[in-house]
Amino acid sequence: xxxxxxKHYYSENVVSLxxxxxxxxxxxxxxxxxxxxxxxxxxxIPLTISTANVERGTIxxxxxxxxxxxxxxxxxxxxxxxxxxxxxxxxxxxxxxFGTILAxxxxxxVAPLLPIVEELKKAGNKVIxxxxxxxxxxxxxxxxxxxxxxxxxVMTDDGSYGKKGLITEGMEEVINREKIxxxxxxxxxxxxxxxxxxxxxxxxxxxxxLNTIMVDGTGMCGACRVTVGGKTRFVCVDGPEFDAxxxxxxxxxxxxxxxxxxxxxxxxxxxCVSKNKGxx
Amino acid sequence: xxxxxxxxxxxxxxWRDDLRKAKKNKxxxxxxxxxMPEAPPMERARSYVEVNSGLTPEQAINEASxxxxxxxxxxxxxxxxxxxxxxxxxxxxxxxFLEAAKVLKETNALPAVCxxxxxxxxxxxxxxxxxxxxxxxxxxxxxxxxxxADFEQQSGKISxxxxxxxxxxxxxxxxxxxxxxxxxxxxAKLGYEVVILEAxxxxxxxxxxxxxxxxxxxxxxxxxxxxxxxxxxxxETNFIVGKTATIDDLREEGFKGFFVGSGAGLPRFMxxxxxxxxxxxxxxxxxxxxxxxxxxxxxxxxxxxxxxxxxxxxGGNTAxxxxxxxxxxxxxxxxxIYRRSLEEMPARVEEVKxxxxxxxxxxxxxxxxxxxxxxxxxxxxxRVQRMELGExxxxxxxxxxxxxxxxxxxDADTVVVSVGVSPNPxxxxxxPQLKVSRWGTIxxxxxTLQSSIPDIFAGGDIVRGGATVILAMGDGRKAAASMHQxxxxxxxx
Lengths: 280, 493
Ligand SMILES: Cc1cc2nc3c(=O)[nH]c(=O)nc-3n(C[C@H](O)[C@H](O)[C@H](O)COP(=O)(O)OP(=O)(O)OC[C@H]3O[C@@H](n4cnc5c(N)ncnc54)[C@H](O)[C@@H]3O)c2cc1C
Ligand code: SF4
Ligand code: FES
What we know:
The complex is a heterodimer. The longest helix of chain A is centred in the last third of the chain and has 20 residues, at about 260-280. In chain A, strand 4 and strand 5 form a beta hairpin. Chain A has helices at about 20-25, 70-75, 110-120, 140-145, 165-175, 190-200, 235-240, 250-255, 260-280, and strands at about 5-10, 15-20, 35, 45-55, 60-65, 85-90, 100-105, 125-135, 150-155, 165, 180-185, 205-210, 225-230, 230-235, 240-245. By secondary structure, chain A is α/β, with parallel strands linked by helices. Chain B folds into 3 domains: about 5-35 and about 50-155, Fumarate Reductase Iron-sulfur Protein, Chain B, domain 2, CATH 1.10.1060; about 170-265 and about 425-490, FAD/NAD(P)-binding domain, CATH 3.50.50; about 265-420, FAD/NAD(P)-binding domain, CATH 3.50.50. Chain B contains 21 helices and 16 strands. In chain B, the strands form 4 sheets. A 5-stranded parallel β-sheet of chain B has the order 3-2-1-4-16. Chain B has a 5-stranded parallel β-sheet with strand order 6-14-7-8-9. In chain B, strands 10, 11, 12 and 13 form a 4-stranded antiparallel β-sheet that branches. The longest helix of chain B is centred in the C-terminal third of the chain and has 24 residues, at about 470-490. The two termini of chain B are about 30 Å apart. The interface between A and B is large, with 41 and 41 residues. The complex binds flavin-adenine dinucleotide, iron/sulfur cluster and FE2/S2 (inorganic) cluster. FE2/S2 (inorganic) cluster binds next to loops of chain A.
């Protein structure tokens, strides 16, 4: 069960894993995620299903090393078993022919953006994608996004690839030259906050896919709660996609920082242990 | 033979008669109720050892001899699954501990669990002759139940129930809490091929992720799960029915009947200002991090907040478990904030007593109205309002009323909200034809526990809302009997 079938590095820190999970492959829709745990000491973390192959009975996850848990996942090799994998979770993306779509992906947010772009394109939309990252080596899945987009703009903070500037600058460029019917925004919290402000300024309906802290992913704990339109919602069951203009991003960012100190400590400890193991 | 005839016949057994004659009732009633041996409060409050260490055989025999083996054993009517209480107690008195365990298992699939977590003071013990007629402390039926069940577990002579020859009929159980486990056991006995599908990566439901180790060690639950495995029950974890596969998918795979025991796992919040501050979390999150994810042990990746001043909102078992967990995580000051008084607390009396002994502060007749955060969005204070009890409401409980102008501020760096749970909606949402109440519980026929969809039965918290282990277990058994009936009729057709 849940064997790693293939592994691909997009960069040193971004890995794509194809994992055996026939039931999930069959049931999943764009926008769904899974909870993953590696090893008996592992933590459960949410990861968006990037693509799935029903015939092969596999799903593909794209993972960026950010903490101890994502690191453990990226260290899985072909043939390894994922200890626990459960899903598909969350509400699927609402897909229809809106007209012209502005798809905005920041950093590793491009991974969950890919299946949405794919579905929206299939539904007949014109898709313009803006993908952004700090620098060239953090731009992922560009070719795959291109395959399903009518146009792709790449932005890097340091100008090492594509255009120099923030994602919002790339978005403004598109918005200023053509009518956008719907925007999709996925990425780090701070990027989503400003991307949402940009589309709000231009009255473009927008959805954002949120990546909060989760424990179970099934609505059981409330760790993932956010305020949307003044109401508390659970990202794992009510989301992960919400009206980007209604999300209280400041609260979300604050809540994301809640366990940051622990996470840095855990990662340092883990690195120490694995280094020592390497020595022995 | 109806139940009372059966009880009479059992009571008339020669050994029971001899025991009754062996001691005068006066002698029996003059004995004092046994005190449960406990780990000392200050020691246990910093560790996860089980608080109650269990009766010794001598203590158990002595306590069992207090029972006068009433002609009309009122205790039984207080037990939701009608354990033949005098029969198991008298078996303890005569030293037949394994026999006593067998009597428990006639009706209770999880006696080692129930002996620890049942609210006996509201059930069997509330209806004991001692309590009703003598107004003294009842026979410690719960302690004795635990004693017999533990004795059996430790003896290595666990009787694995006989399983009928396989009838080849597949049935699926959704959720592995006490309702699902009890259902599975009975269906396996009848020869069904039983598969339990569980959303989490552990089997046991609340028994594992909710109730802490110091009250119900996981190893106790694991023994029961192991017995089911030996009876041929199959378990599949990481399987969310309604997401991973639908009931329709499972029907296609050949499952003929479904029992939904998916529990009431959704935490409620109070919707007061500041509830989403960092450091304010549900008891489910708090307990899950510790009990399911092991966050308090070395080397586990899952973190948990370790507050110095922890306030827990609520007065149920979940609140007591949370507040005592906070102590064990090293908190310096821990408080319960509850809007009614001590008498109305729904928690087991023993848990309240243990919490008090361990140094938990009880702010009863108090209610939080706002959480106040620091500049980083982390909770630092609670605005609390004093309450008084008004007229009794429809449930007979006196409802709390806020005292005007009584608000004050207390410090807290962690707040655990434990004000109740709602039914888990994942499965009902995947079945639009399924009848649910406006609270989200599944509607069932009270006698058969059959839902509005004929091949789906349901029980436990998903039907009752947050209830108890024993009621969930009883539902599982009842549903097994009626599903068996239903499937037998189906195959006859
Ligand atoms: C902290 C705490 C302390 C408690 N203390 C006591 C006590 O002392 N005494 C007492 O009598 N009661 C106590 N209770 C209440 C008692 O635990 C519950 O009433 C009882 O566990 C309900 O059993 P259940 O089988 O209905 O559901 P649960 O034990 O809740 O189990 C349901 C299971 O179903 C799974 N599930 C849900 N949806 C799906 C799905 N779609 N597919 C697959 N699996 C699914 C869940 O993950 C869960 O494991 C306590 C509860 C809590 C939370
Ligand atoms: S009511 Fe009390 S004394 Fe009478 S049979 Fe039951 S446990 Fe024994
Ligand atoms: S992750 Fe637990 S409720 Fe959403």
